[in-house]
Amino acid sequence: MEYFLELLLGGLTRGSIYALIALGYTMVYGIIELINFAHGEIYMIGAFTALIVASVLTLQGLNHIAILVIASVAAVIYSSAYGYTAEKLAYKPLRRAPRLSALISAIGVSLFLQNYVLLAQTSDFLPFPSLIPEFKFNEPYEHIISSPEIVILITTTVVMILLTFLIKFTKIGKAMRATAQDRNMAMLVGVDVDRVISFTFIVGSATAAIGGVLIASHIGQINFYIGFIAGIKAFVAAVLGGIGSIPGAVLGSLVLGWTESFFTGYISSDYEDVFAFLFLVFILIFRPAGILGRSETDKV
Amino acid sequence: MMKTDLGKFFVMAIIGISMIFLFPGNSPAAETIKLGVAGPHSGDLASYGLPTVNAAELVVKDINAKGGVLGKKVELLIEDDVCKPEVATNTATKLLSEKVDVVLGHICSGATNAALGIYKDSKIIAISPSATNPDLTQSGNYPNFFRTIASDDAQAKLEVDFALNTMKAKKIAVLHDKGDYGKGLAEFAKGFLEKDKRATVVLFEGITPGAVDYSAIVQKIKRSGAEAVIFGGYHPEASKIVTQMRKKKMKTIFISDDGVKDDTFIKVAKQYAEGVYATGPKDVSKNPMAIAAIEAHKKAYGKDPGAFFLNGYAAALALLNAIEKAGSTGYDAVEKALRTEYVDTPLGKIRFDEKGDAEGVGFSIYQVQKGKYVELK
Lengths: 300, 377
Prior knowledge:
The complex is a heterodimer. Chain A has eleven helices and two strands; from the N terminus they run ααααβααααβααα. By secondary structure, chain A is mainly α. Chain A has one domain (15-231). Chain A has a two-stranded antiparallel sheet. In chain A, helix 2 packs antiparallel against helix 3 (64-91). Chain B folds into three domains: 1-30; 32-149 and 286-350, Rossmann fold, CATH 3.40.50.2300; 154-275, Rossmann fold (3-Layer(aba) Sandwich). Chain B has 14 helices and 14 strands. Chain B has helices at residues 2-22, 26-29, 46-65, 85-97, 109-121, 135-138, 154-166, 180-196, 215-224, 235-247, 263-269, 288-301, 309-326, 331-340, and strands spanning 32-39, 73-80, 102-104, 125-128, 145-147, 171-176, 200-206, 228-232, 253-256, 277-281, 343-345, 348-350, 363-369, 372-376. In chain B, helix 3 (46-65) packs across helix 13 (309-326), helix 4 (85-97) runs parallel beside helix 5 and helix 13 (309-326) crosses helix 14 (331-340).
């Protein structure tokens, strides 16, 4: 039973990690139906920014919490700027082009950012400081859960609630929903569609940056390539949950995290990915739009 | 009648003359010791073979300057096998036709394997500086074969011996990263452990490289009750696993390989790296002979030596030393000398074991102590 709980918690943490990245995928897809392959790279840039800022601040001798907050804010700002710029330069000119063109453009941005960081930084793995403070837990919890895991779980939940609130109850949220439903009609009734899309990219990038800081701090190492694998897994999670749906992204991530964790724990890690993707295929056969996705006919 | 005789005479004369050209100086040949050097000297893999040629040239120049071996000059017969088994058999036959005494080579395991049968039938000794396939020595098929490099399973053997003899582990988990290098090593380790029977392999699994975390596999290690983990793979995965194990308060011994014996591992895993064991090549950078050999190479060829240079240098020295000690180039005497007489080489003082592997060449165990890899003696 204890083993089961440990695997459950491990899967939960892993799922939350995926969720922080999957949220950005699903938001962008919900608004403009673009699979933003560069999203994983935004997450990676967030982690790098935090590393650089944290290294400088550690030299200044600030305390842990202050470093965590400042580094996260810097990562959020920097990543958002990248997300915003990528949208303006690589996606906006293609908005009227076939969807495939924008997709290729997104892959291009992804490769560009990866190689840019590779050249500007290094190909080596870099140590990432543990920014999240370690709390002492009492046995029997101590060896099951650690504070970074709790922080990741709480952050994911809070981000998810805030995003849902933002979309359901604010003016910009209403504009986002309108744009998602019918971009031309939204434009006709006075919604500034360009601004809504930019805003979506900024919010999506910000969540990825937060994810980058927390995950890098939990795992303790980063390199230019981390965004690719995490991005693919998060994308799968978003599809699994129903791309375009915010609770779906979180649910899909948790399901993927648990699948991997239990499969490794009870069967074998050799085929972890094989099994995770088999499971994805299996779910998509029965629910083609994902677990929480609405199946809708394409707009004519 | 006359015509035919003349014709016969001409034929004889032509054969006679060509014989003279075919075997120029049959008699002076006996006065040199012929050291064959075989390996890829052209093509894609030439960079593996040419450093050994350079090494042989340097050694021979040195020894000839000091009067040669057994009072005879050493002559090099350099033959290209482009690393291909089918070419290597021709190379070997050619060397035999040139009356080679001993062979330094071949370089690639496949080519070496192909050539060894031919050398064995003609009682010629071959020393490879680079063929690492374990079977070449361990199968026992080639008593004429020696090498100055550790075989592919040497690291796994060392790791297993260390876990069993020094750490006295009874339950061992063997993990790998599913790559050629890591998985190969892990399979060798598993094989040695199963043969030994002092410990049981409680877990044998491949992990997914680059995964965001390894908490599930770490829990699995914990549940398996393993006292030691042998990991085949590279440092990014190793540092994630070690970090998560230590964060979960597990004191499991972690033993890994050359791919982890990298300063990046310590930099990334930080305090959690302390106490981790890893095998790595023996440090020869302070060996005065190695320093001198590299200097001589720079002087003669104007650049740093390439792959297997020191192994090639050691092999050439070992061969010529064995001939000197044996007092002849006879197969039995040289073979015995290789196994019994120590020789000073850039890789240290070496001789060969009964299987043909060089004793004292290869890998050491290192441990992370106070943020540095320290070689354990």
